[in-house]
Model the fold of this input.
Amino acid sequence: MPVTEFDNQPARPSSLDPAIAAKLKRSSGGLIAAIVREDASGDVLMLAWMDDEALHRTLTTGRATYWSRSRNEYWVKGATSGHFQHVRSVALDCDGDALLVTVDQVGAACHTGEHTCFHTALPLAESTALPPAGNAEGAEEAEQAEKASTASTVEHEEPRESA
Done:
């Protein structure tokens, strides 16, 4: 199921408000990506999939409900693990093809027991890495380099005649 192909039709019957349903840009399987973040920390916890009915259930119950592509069924996060997601808000992105679900997370979000599913950092090439946030020295060096570049450009510009 390529995520880039959209037919914009729900795959299953749903009680979702038609005004909301009309705003969704679904995959060819009738799904929309749901990015889940924790309200308290701002951490991105997981990526899951919703269809219209999963979104309807989430909006009306306040419990995060997803569509399992592997089991081909709905699942309420925490129903078996006890690691519930109590929904604080749901936002649709500007293209209508992704949801941001903000939750109060109870326990681990990841099935591995980790707080977030995004716990495996991949290495960046040293030349592409930015200085760590809050690194005053790195930020100061970048600012000085920018000023030097700007000053050099200004010094070499030809004077302009006024009209």
Summary: The CA atoms of residues 108 and 115 lie 4 Å apart. Residues 152-157 have pLDDT under 50 and may be disordered. Residues 18-105 form a domain with the Ubiquitin-like (UB roll) fold (CATH 3.10.20.810).
